[in-house]
Amino acid sequence: MISEYLGIDSDYIVIGLAALVLILIIVMIVNAAKMHSLKKAYNNFMTGKDAKNLEDTILKRLDQVEQLMDSNEKNEKNINRIFSNMKYTFQKVGLVKYDAFNEMGGKLSFSLALLSQTNDGFIINAMHSREGCYTYIKEIIDGNSVITLSEEEQEALDTALNSNKK
């Protein structure tokens, strides 16, 4: 047969096959030991610390993620609502102090312009004299007044209109 064809004694073939079987048995034992170690590590991983189950931990984290997503959605809605309300708040300010009358000093009179994002608002003009203080208000719509503005009022309005352009 093969031994006669190759010129090898059959005893050497049997010894070689026995050695191969012995090596395969050793490899199988090493694999079994590694598999046992892996199973032990897997069981420890799945049971977790303090008898906590990995599934319970994952479900808990998923619930927390859902809560965070809901909270984020509410925050976005609140922020959008705040920004839409901000359009109507006074965001632009212009103030000019001046002397209304030559005999008065100290720049006690003033013009104060308060405008929203859409340039709507009013100008308060307070003129201080020896007899008293007179206060006037003029409505501003889209950056303009229907009533003619004094020089100081126009300066306060221009300051307010340019206050957010920085």
TrEMBL record:
Organism whose genome encodes this protein: Maccoyibacter intestinihominis
InterPro entries named among the record's database cross-references: DUF4446
Descriptive protein name: DUF4446 family protein
Source superkingdom: Bacteria
Pfam family membership, one: DUF4446
Swiss-Prot/TrEMBL keywords: Membrane, Transmembrane, Transmembrane helix
Chain ranges passing through the membrane: 12-33
